[in-house]
């Protein structure tokens, strides 16, 4: 693949470093140099004078490719046949030609944490994917990347509409707790079986007793990974009491917790910061469509960051279109988010909670060449994404305002 040097740009590396008149060199889809004095020999040179070069943005919580924008026939975002569905995988619902991926590239979003909705107390497995490609498997960065849980109004409403549990907050918590207890027992059964297998293997072959393994359960298998802290729980919770229930359950079973939406997290900052729980806030735009988001405020981003929380800003696309991820950060800056902490909320922090920080989130040697060029200060609302690159390949180029046919 061609070696390309992008020169004379103002580079925000995502590590806190700003390089004036800097350069970035890519080869074979990876970053091979970044700095103020790069070796351009053997490179195709692209002069980026007057432009800002940033890591591709990361939306850590979106439904891009599975929500069926424009048609309910294409909706694959919630499996509502049962209340507990940890066995379903968002990957199996992704439609790579969903227009949301076009929107993402136009907005400079190169990586997306794609997850199903919040119909169930324990839903399925989210995936992390690049925003370009024609085959979902080829877009994947990490699969699975966590398990979705949901507390509050949504699972209650679905239970009531389908005339099944849960219909109360205590019912939601019970079903989640019951599922983790079952996963603990499932793990014990398999550990006992494996111990028997090892004991039999130590015997002479003529003395071995045939053994029957426990029956596999795909849902419990994934919950065992959660219990072993191989995968985090992404917990949808808006209200303060629902956030506390999420914390209570995570401490009861010892799994890694990441709070999603977390509308009232700023009201219990100390409880969150003292436990080092990451908070994926949003969407910041849009109305207060439910009672549990009555205290929604974009000021929460700055409040949480200043208090020492690891904060991620997300769109919940399509509820806020994915291309407006940066616009939400601009609003958060207006409402008190320190500018020097803004970029991390849509680059390095989401990369970290998605488990892909070794590949994306910052502009460093060895990482994927996912970056964007902008025609001005990224926190000026008038600034446009001019070009978006994924794995070193140009996947979007602006030629003026976007006006659908």
UniProtKB/TrEMBL annotation:
It comes from hydrothermal vent metagenome. This is Amidohydrolase-related domain-containing protein. The lineage of its organism: unclassified sequences, metagenomes, ecological metagenomes. One of its GO terms (molecular function) is hydrolase activity, acting on carbon-nitrogen (but not peptide) bonds. Residues 272-395 form the Amidohydrolase-related domain. InterPro entries: Amidohydro-rel, Metal-dep_hydrolase_composite, Metal_Hydrolase, Metallo-dep_Hydrolase.
């Amino acid at each position: 693949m061609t070696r390309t040097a992008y020169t004379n740009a103002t580079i925000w590396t995502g590590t806190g470093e700003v390089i004036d008149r800097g350069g970035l060199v890519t080869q074979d889809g990876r970053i091979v140099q970044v700095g103020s004095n790069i070796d351009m020999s053997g490179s195709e040179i692209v002069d980026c004078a007057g432009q800002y070069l940033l890591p591709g943005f990361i939306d850590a919580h979106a439904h891009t490719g599975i929500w069926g924008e424009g048609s309910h026939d294409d909706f694959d975002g919630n499996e509502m046949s049962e209340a507990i569905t940890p066995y379903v995988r968002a990957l199996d619902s992704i439609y790579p030609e969903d227009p949301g991926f076009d929107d993402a590239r136009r907005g400079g979003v190169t990586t997306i944490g794609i997850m199903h909705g919040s119909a169930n107390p324990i839903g399925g497995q989210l995936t992390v994917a690049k925003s370009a490609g024609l085959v979902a498997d080829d877009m994947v960065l990490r699969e699975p990347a966590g398990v979705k849980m949901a507390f509050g109004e949504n699972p209650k409403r679905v239970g009531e509409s389908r005339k099944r549990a849960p219909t109360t907050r205590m019912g939601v918590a019970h079903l989640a707790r019951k599922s983790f207890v079952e996963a603990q027992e499932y793990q014990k059964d398999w550990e006992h079986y494996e111990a028997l297998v090892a004991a039999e293997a130590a015997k002479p072959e003529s003395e071995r007793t045939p053994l029957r393994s426990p029956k596999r359960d795909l849902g419990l298998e994934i919950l065992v990974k959660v219990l072993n802290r191989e995968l985090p729980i992404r917990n949808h919770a808006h209200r303060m009491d629902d956030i506390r229930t999420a914390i209570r359950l995570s401490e009861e079973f010892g799994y890694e917790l990441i709070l999603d939406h977390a509308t009232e997290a700023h009201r219990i900052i100390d409880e969150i910061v003292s436990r080092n729980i990451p908070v994926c806030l949003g969407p910041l735009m849009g109305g207060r469509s439910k009672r549990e988001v009555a205290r929604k405020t974009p000021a929460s981003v700055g409040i949480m960051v200043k208090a020492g929380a690891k904060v991620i800003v997300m769109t919940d696309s399509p509820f806020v279109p994915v291309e407006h991820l940066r616009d939400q950060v601009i609003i958060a800056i207006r409402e008190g988010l320190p500018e020097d902490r803004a970029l991390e909320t849509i680059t390095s922090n989401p990369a970290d909670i998605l488990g892909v920080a070794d590949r994306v989130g910052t502009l460093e040697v060895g990482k994927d060449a996912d970056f964007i060029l902008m025609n001005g200060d990224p926190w000026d609302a008038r600034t446009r994404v001019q070009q978006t690159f994924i794995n070193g390949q140009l996947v979007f180029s602006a030629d003026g305002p976007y006006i659908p046919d």
